[in-house]
Structures are given as C-alpha cells and as structure tokens.
Amino acid sequence: MLLAIDCGNTNTVFSIWDGQEFLCTLRTSTHHARTADAYFTWYYTLVKHYGIEVDITDVIISSTVPRVVFNLRVFSDRFFGCRPLVVGKPECRLPVEPRVDAGTQVGPDRLVNTAGAFDRHGGNLIVVDFGTATTFDVVAHDGAYVGGAIAPGVNLSLEALHTAAAALPHIDVAKPDRVIGTNTVDCMRSGVFWGYVGLINGICDRIKEEYGHPMKVVSTGGLAPLFQQGHAVFDVFEDDLTMHGLTVIHDYNKEG
Ligand SMILES: Nc1ncnc2c1ncn2[C@@H]1O[C@H](COP(=O)(O)OP(=O)(O)OP(=O)(O)O)[C@@H](O)[C@H]1O
Ligand SMILES: CC(C)(CO)[C@@H](O)C(=O)NCCC(=O)O
Ligand SMILES: [K+]
Questions:
Q1: What residues bind substrate, as annotated (predicted)?
Q2: Which numbered ligand comes closest to the C-alpha of 109?
C-alpha cells in the first residue's frame, strides 16, 4: 500500500492508497518541528480509530515546505522501512517535464496537480487549487506544466484584512446574500467572496485568451465548491486531485 503525503503551508494530508481506492485521509496542521515519532503517534491513533488494515510498503511526499521533509523521511524509514519518493527531487521523475524559465522551482503541489489532472482529463487545462495561496496551473496539450498564476489564498486575504485594520474582525469566508453589505461582516464577506469570483473568472478568461486554444478548468481544494456558487468558471471539481496526482507520479516511477 502507498502512503501519499501532501504537505501544504497550512495543512498536511496523509492518504492511504491500496491500488484501487483511498482507504482513509488524515489531516493535520503543518509544523516544521513535528518529529517522526509525533507523526507516527498521530497517524497510528487515527488508523486504529478507523479500524483499517494497513500495510504500507511505499511512501510519496509532496511538500511546499522544505523543512518538513527531513522528519517525514525519518518517519518513513523508521516506521515503514522505506525510502520515500519526494516530488521535485532529482530521483523522482515526472511523466512530463515542466516548461518554465531556467532555474525556476515550481511548487511540487502544482506539479502533482498537473500530473493528476492530465491523467484524468488530458491536456489543455487550467487547474485552480484553493490552498494557502490560490494557484492557477496551465497544463499543455502534452501534459507539461507550462506556468500559471499565484494569488493570495482566500483565508490569507481575510486574515490580512483583520491583521491590518483594527476595526475588522476575524471572519470565515461565506457567500453573502447581497453584494451591498449593510454591516461590517457582510461588507467583508462581499468584498472577499465577489472579489474572488472576479479574480478567478478574470484570470481564467485571460489565460484562455493568451493560450489561444479551448481549455477545461479543473478546480480542487476545500473552498472550490463555495466559489462555484458564485458562478466561477469551473468545468469540474475534484476533491482528491492532489492525492490522485501523487498516485500517478508514484506509478510512473515504479514502472520505469
Ligand atoms: N467555508 C469555509 N470557510 C473557511 N474555511 C473553509 C471553508 N470550507 C473549507 N475550509 C477550509 O479550507 C481549507 C482547505 O483545505 P485545502 O487542503 O484545500 O487547503 P489548505 O490545507 O488550507 O492549504 P495548503 O494546502 O496550502 O496547506 C481546510 O482547512 C478547510 O477546513
Ligand atoms: C504557491 C504555493 C505556495 C501553493 O501551495 C506553492 O506551490 C509554492 O510554494 N510554489 C513555489 C513557486 C512556484 O510554484 O512557482
Ligand atoms: K492543497
């Protein structure tokens, strides 16, 4: 069985893949100081809680936080006796190499999303991922990552308003009933929600125009369904796109 680990700047997600389906998905906040033993205690408790029969033989890691990789390598070696594949490292091959400026380090999560989306939908795609940042990844006809856009994440934008303005409270994103807010919270909700819908649609439209070929828009990440309610331009939403991409990259490296 494969343990797929997706480490974002905010959250770290573990999923167990038995070759057919994901048996479970576990989520914790990302902390660079978490030790291998601490990962295992958390992991083992939840696996027992769900009563899943697990036999991990392989581990693959995508991490946007370089510092956490060391402890995850120790975790993998100590508890499963295996050397993990780490996306972005030379020993982890990608089905198609990215085409970007020389010396650019593409976020591993974007490379993984590209592989997952190409496997399911073929080329000519925009992948929109709502995480700490909102990323737009352009997947070319042959499955190569060829660039995109990085915007501040939704929760980051809300956090920034609260941090910078004394009178603005900490709130969660939600779709407001009206565009014209009549209290502070509704005004903030309107600005962030409709501002974001405009950002998503504006960037996707401009990418399509510049790309010059019809494209499908694939969305992923916890907040995508919310923006769909504001008529964002997504063609499909896929909850498990990053995890799927990790299984695709793992299979590709095993076959080779
Ligand atoms: N309506 C909502 N308001 C606020 N947060 C939400 C809402 N719906 C989902 N979320 C949160 O959004 C987050 C989305 O998770 P996702 O894995 O997509 O990104 P992330 O973990 O925050 O970012 P990263 O992958 O960069 O660490 C989850 O923590 C989820 O609890
Ligand atoms: C943009 C984030 C933070 C999104 O998780 C991540 O993909 C990242 O750190 N990227 C590095 C820069 C780049 O992708 O061009
Ligand atoms: K993510």
A1: 107-110, 184
A2: 2
